[in-house]
Design a protein that fits this description.
Blueprint (H helix, E strand, L loop, with lengths): L3 E4 L2 E4 L6 E3 L4 E2 H19 L3 E6 L9 E3 L12 E4 L8 E5 L3 H8 L3 E5 L10 E10 L5 H17 L5 E4 L5 E10 L1 H18 L4 E2 L11 E4 L9 E2 L18 H6 L10 H11 L13 E2 L2
Parallel strand pairs: 12-16, 13-14
Antiparallel strand pairs: 1-2, 3-4, 5-6, 5-8, 5-9, 7-8, 9-15, 10-12, 10-14, 11-12
InterPro entries: LigD_pol_dom, MtLigD_Pol-like, NHEJ_LigD
EC number: 6.5.1.1
GO molecular function: DNA ligase (ATP) activity
């Protein structure tokens, strides 16, 4: 029998709570749900008013992985959904919008990574986030990403844009900034221009093209996630990796001090102490006053 729990007045069905999702650490589905419930205060503001894509891994990262973008069958009627544009205006999609704790717990029961666009559902024609995904090609690793991130931070600051870093929760880094007054197309153009500039400034370290043959030993500065259709892992989401790694906000001091990839590897159990010490390091992204206009 599927257990039913009440979350803020909503009845939420939970399933397979004892299932071990991460065999290396024995991390169970119940622990995953507990993580999301206790991290909701920091996570929910980054999900709210954004259409969510789910990368689902119901049998753990070693099982089948599949993206769910449309509203899943069986979604409770009290979960907010929104119609969002696709490449064709005649065929919009309807996607989940995680607005509250009951919706978050329901979504976490699907066992999924949370991925969101760089725009809000009420204004899909305007980007409110600028993002760079720094992806190292082995033997490069996250320490090399840190060097690139520091360069991008200074370059963005020269244009009046403040960037905030987080781990990808896999092998690289994400840089996010709050922007306003630009379309996704314009934001993509700006991000690409900076990626090209970074390659010119750091030619032995950076590549801005996706061509795989160019990437070994370099950091791919992926600017393409600014496209309207693209999504990026949400801050604090647990990733479908061999261990329950989290896409965790970090300080610029941690970026500057990183000498070993393990220094920027955070698991679900690490996040509560970090929130107690730092609060939500990406909270400034939620303040409209912090949003910058692109030059």
């Amino acid at each position: 029998m599927t257990p039913i729990t009440e979350v803020e007045g909503r009845r939420v069905a939970l399933s397979n709570l004892e299932k071990v999702l991460y065999p290396e650490s024995g991390f169970t589905k119940a622990e995953l749900l507990h993580y999301y419930a206790t991290t909701a205060g920091a996570l929910l503001p980054h999900l709210r008013d954004r259409a969510v894509s789910f990368l689902r891994y119901p049998d753990g990262p070693g099982g089948q992985l599949f993206f769910t973008k449309n509203v899943p069958p069986g979604t409770p009627e009290w979960v907010t959904t929104a119609e969002v544009p696709r490449s064709s205006p005649d065929s919009p999609a309807r996607m989940v919008v995680v607005q509250d704790l009951p919706s978050l717990v329901w979504a976490a029961n699907l066992v999924a990574e949370f991925h969101t666009h760089q725009w809000l559902v009420r204004c899909p024609e305007e980007a409110d986030r600028l993002v760079f995904d720094l992806d190292p090609g082995p033997p490069a690793h996250i320490v090399h990403c840190c060097e690139v991130a520091l360069w991008l931070r200074e370059r963005l600051a020269a244009d009046g844009i403040e960037a905030y870093p987080k781990t990808a929760g896999s092998k690289g880094l994400h840089l996010l900034a709050a922007v306003r007054g630009s379309s996704s197309e314009r934001t993509s153009e700006y991000a690409k221009a900076l990626a090209v500039e970074a390659e010119r400034a750091l030619p032995r370290l950076v590549v801005h093209r996706m061509t795989k043959s160019l990437r070994p030993g370099k950091v791919f500065v992926d600017w393409s996630q600014n496209a309207a259709r693209k999504t990026t892992a949400t801050p604090y989401t647990v990733r479908a990796r061999p261990a329950p790694l989290v896409s965790a906000p970090v300080t610029w001091q941690e970026i500057a001090d990183c000498r070993n990839p393990a220094q920027l590897e955070f698991r679900a159990d690490d996040i509560a102490p970090r929130l107690a010490d730092h609060g939500d390091l990406m909270a400034p992204l939620l303040d409209p006053e912090s949003a910058a206009r692109l030059p």
